[in-house]
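During the reporting period the student researcher (J.K.) took over the structure-prediction task from the postdoctoral fellow and processed the backlog of single-chain submissions. One of the processed entries is reproduced below for the supervisory committee.
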Amino acid sequence: MDALQRKMPYSIDAEQAVLGSIIIDPEKCFDVVAQILKADDFYHDTHARIYEVMMDFKYNSKPIDLVTLLANLVSGGVYNDEAEARSYVKLLIDTTPTTSNVKDYAKIVYDKSVLRRLILASEEIQKDAYSEGDKVENIVDAAEQRIFEIAQNNEKRDFVHIKDVIYKTYEHLNQLQTASKEDILGLPTGYSDLDKVVVGFGKGDLVIVGARPGVGKTSFCLNLGTNIAKKSKKAVCMFSLEMSNEQLVSRIIASEAMVDSQKLRTGALEPSDWEKIANATAILSETNIYIDDTTDVSITAMKAKLRRIKNLGLVVVDYLQLMESENKRRDGSRVNEIAEISRGLKILAKELNVPVITCSQLSRGTEKEKERKPMLSDLRDSGSIEQDADMVIFLSRDYYGNDPEKANLVDVIVAKNRHGGLGTVQMSWLGQYTKFSTLENGIVEY
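J.K. obtained the following structure tokens:
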């Protein structure tokens, strides 16, 4: 059958049953339907407009009753007169088998809506492929993104009316009343003092961890990723552009088992070390940590891989300056190239709706001024990194100079935080274990 002769998927009966159920028992049915459907999930425009009128009642905390509904259908221009409106509303009521199945009716309407969006997305994908107007990898990424958005119920729209956003906001506020702390504050870092400042990593956040060479930014990010994987039970994906899978896992084991990392490298392990390693690896094996050590992975490739991970909670990238832009700039500007990469990571975080943590080097000049704490302007190839980041965390150990009593102290400086506070948290750095830990009497300076 020719594509033009095919009919879009829809179910008149289900759409009518949804609306009829709401009219018959609005108190019970509307909230059930509202969690599943938006107005544009209805195929027939009249049904969508009737549903919008019902939503207006909810926005204004007014009960949906037959008299006021009919009046608003006429005043809203859905019908020309009340007799016409009454006739169709009566039909909706009469054709509704039972309100107890309203959730099933709504699911049918939603499923048909998804199929229609898939058809439209497929047509766009075919159009892009036939045109050959872009690089193949970009066309493939765009195709994956269209399907991914539909699967995640996150379809891009030209405009969203403020009423739809208000309703979602009300829903969100209601959910927060019974939501867990993680849903409200974001993913906890696993470090109590640090959580007091950052208030967790929010969905869609780009988090930059900056430090001078050798201060432990990779270890800090690995510690964060491991903490979150263990506590949240979500998948944590780590992209290592500098170390191999084995090197990365060796560091994680050293941190979790509290075994000297040098012993792990040389194999000079004692019986007690083997026991610690066995206990740590048993726990780590139960987590959903995924590692990719592709050295030249692009943001497009990252997206393709991450979309296939179920229950994704966090992405860690080590580290930003090792990434290559997908479009090599003709002007040869590394600053502009880094700007494209940091912007790409921010978009990736937003599209996947998870926090992305990436390490960043500091500019060379900071190595000559070791006795001052890092600042946002110290980010190497700065500007865009500082702008795109939702949170910037600096690690500093050199600030304490040669004081032997403070040799294991590290300042964790929250220098930028769009959703929380700023401040400095003192933590302990156990270099032989590549592990950061909270101090017993941790100090938070606001």
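The committee noted the following: The CA atoms of residues 74 and 84 lie 9 Å apart.
J.K. will present the remaining backlog at the next meeting.
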